[in-house]
Amino acid sequence: VELTKGEVYKRDEQLDLTASEYKLLCLFMENPGVVLSPEKILGRLWDCNENYIDNQTLTAYIRRLRIKIEDDPGKPERIVTVRRMGYKWNTVEGSREHVVEVHYEDTGKS
Q1: pLDDT higher for 105 or 38?
Q2: 72 pLDDT band (50/70/90 cuts)?
Q3: Which residues, 6 or more positions from 67, have their beta carbon under 8 angstroms from its beta carbon?
Q4: What is the secondary structure of 6-29 as a DSSP string?
Q5: Nearest Cα residue to 99 out of 80, 73, 77
Q6: pLDDT digits (tens, 9 = 90+) for 50-61
Q7: For residues 98 and 93, what is the distance between their CA atoms, to the nearest angstrom?
Q8: C-alpha distances in angstroms, 45 versus 12, 50, 79, 87, 99?
Q9: What pLDDT, on a 0 to 100 scale, did the predictor assign at position 6?
């Protein structure tokens, strides 16, 4: 599948994400409640040559993504850190306050 247009909304307002932030968000949303290790995230997003991306760079991407999607990035409720294990996408059932939606177009190509 070739994605030609990625749009992310928070409370009906479109967010401006970089391509890397968008891919990271999609990875989390595809794995709700699953702890993803830094190695797994790096392997999925930067599988060509992981040597150029380290844990500090990943931490920076996650921090920037939290700033854009969390109501209080200092106390994240969506992308949570699981100590010594990694990160996970936390779903908040029944809450409209924290809704983040991802829309994309599928060209039908694979």
Answers
A1: 38
A2: very high
A3: 73
A4: EEEEETTEEE---HHHHHHHHHHH
A5: 77
A6: 555 678 889 999
A7: 9
A8: 27, 9, 17, 14, 24
A9: 75
